[in-house]
Amino acid sequence: MLQNLLLLILYISSLYAFIPLIISRLFGFRVLRRGKIKDSFALTFDDGPHPVYTQQLLDLLQRYEVKATFFVVGMHAKDHPELLRRMHQEGHLIGIHNYEHRANWLMRPKTVRRQIEWTEQIIRQVTGQPVMYYRPPWGVVNLFDFSPSAGKRIVLWSSMFYDWRFRIGADRLAERMLRKLRGGEIMLLHDRGTTFGADPQAPENMLLAVEKLLEEAAHRGMKAIRIDEMEEVEVVMGEEKGRQDNAGWLKRGILRLWFQYEKLFHSLFHLQPASTDAPLLHYRQRSYQGEEVKLGDGSVLSKGDSVLELHFDNHRLYEIGASAKSTLHIAIQMIRGVEQQLPALASRIAEEPGLANVKALYGVSMINRGAEKLGFIVQELPKGLFATASRWYLALLLLVIHPAGQRRFRKGQLRAEQQRSSREATARATLIPKRIVMPVSILQNRYGATSSSSSKAAAVEAGYDAEMVDMESTTAAPVNSTGTTA
Residue 380 to residues 15, 389, 445: CA-CA distances in angstroms? Predict the structure, then answer.
């Protein structure tokens, strides 16, 4: 019971906060962090409006004839609608920064949604325009911020300067900003100093530093533009690409932490490698707790039966993704990797007395028909919280482990929306986790010591290649390190 509770806590904390933080900050999943324009940059201002500093900032921007993006806090915007009106009339872009300056990790999805709706209502009453852009306080996103139903484009930043600290001074702040003056930069600044940890007078330095920045930008022939203008140019240039290819030191560091987390998980739940030679699969013995499943050998898997729960090695998954040329290539490697591990699992079950009562292999998997070629039964997960959480968790994991993940995820979402009316089409949509089960009798018949190697090879070669072509549109990824198959 304690183990299951701990597993649930790890699931929730990783899924809701930690994983979204990694993929948004490092891989740019569903967020805008930087542009690729050579002669323009973006000035973005958070926490306002402020009756004194925002007014002065608008005067400054008007004098240099440049545009900016303001991510306003709803409660302040409500008190100063005249500033919102001026922002809009002078051509600046207005985005949302929650109604109160509270971190999304500390709020339920419903509360976050309400904060956004309240702020948008205030902005629309003044401007008459819908609000398309959103920056969560401190850049902290949760899982549900990525949902298409959220309806906002999340904007982070490529450089920040700690301008909320008054002691930095205007000269030092200007030096920091000038070092980052380059095309595509999204600069994070603040036109209000009343939030937690900020100095009330800090915007005085910000105003002086921004003026020096704009002077130098004009000298270099560069211009500050709105976020939506930057994004429009990005689309025209066709430069929206996967960002995993050029891993910087920060990404490598986070990945090392991720792999350490996996080791901790394996230790806590006593996962064992299926093979000592470059293990791809890990397993643990546990009691099955789901609904009854009719197995391929005529038996039934019932609650309380002993199963081997399968988990993929995330380090191996990342290695496969990093070297693969396409999603198809990844799918083929993963399927064949699993096939190579199954004989080792069959041997362990046959030889270890403690596994003698194991009835089936069990996992939750992104593999569609590829798993059936291995001998697994593939079934839809019962609708509910577990199915939803598994889908999001495994989709996010897939984004981390291979370069095309972001593109595949977006395609999967679009396809699912377009085909929602058709049950058959929905079953074909990508990134839908399914339950995979293989009875031990089939495992031993196909992969045990008494089965023929030729039949194993035939099972792979006869079915996989044709299936893999179809899996290019259905994405494959078996078991991951935190309790479900990928």
Answer: 21, 14, 25
Q: Where are the domains of the chain?
A: 28-237, 246-471
Residue pair 52/186 in contact by the 8 Å Cβ criterion = no
Token output for 6:
């701990």
Instruction: Verify whether residue 190 is a known catalytic residue.
Output: yes
In CATH, the number for domain 28-237 is: 3.20.20.370
- Distance (Å, whole) CA 384 – CA 386: 6
Q: Strand 186-190 vs strand 40-46: parallel, antiparallel, or unpaired?
A: parallel
pLDDT-based confidence at residue 123 (cuts at 50, 70, 90): very high
Catalytic residue, from 50, 80, 190, 282: name it. 190
The Cβ-side half-sphere exposure at 78, using a 13 Å CA radius, reads: 13
Which of 315, 330, 135 has its CA nearest to residue 242?
Answer: 330
Residue 47 is a catalytic residue: no
**Contact 86/172 with Cβ under 8 angstroms?**
no
pLDDT tens column, 205-262: 999 999 999 999 999 999 999 998 887 655 444 433 444 444 556 556 666 777 777 7
Name the E strands within 179-323.
186-190, 223-225, 272-273, 281-287, 293-294, 300-301, 306-312
In terms of C-beta distances under 8 Å and separation of at least 24 residues, what long-range contacts does 456-461 make, across chains too?
456/339, 456/343, 459/339, 459/373, 459/374, 459/375, 460/336, 460/339, 460/373
Find where tokens 């006869």 sit.
462
Q: Which of 46, 47, 228, 313 is catalytic?
A: 46
pLDDT recorded at residue 257:
72
Q: pTM, whole model, 2 decimals? A: 0.52
Nearest Cα neighbor of 338 from 446, 262, 433, 429 is 446
